[in-house]
Amino acid sequence: MLREYDRKIKRLLDSKRADTDWKEIFKTHQEMVSIIRHERLLHLLVMLTVAIIVTIVFALIIVFEKTILLLLGIPLFALFIGYIIHYRFLENTTQNWHKLSMEIKKNI
Question: pTM of the predicted model, to two decimals?
Fold first, then answer.
């Protein structure tokens, strides 16, 4: 959904058609920016929670020397890496959309 919208708004900005209602597009774009900000915040909170859990699990592995806990720690670490990658995508997309907001404003 996010990538599709990103392509759509970039194509629209590239076309610069005279019959385009830029005020309505700006309003819609601001709603999309609001949605992605909310999603970014939720993913940040989940990512931090997973990071704390991963840290606790690996601390327990070190303190109690229980390698069986690696069966829990390794998948959690993989999940954490996945969250970092997705959060980076959300952050970069949000920053890009703020730039697109400025371009849309110029067309109003």
Answer: 0.82
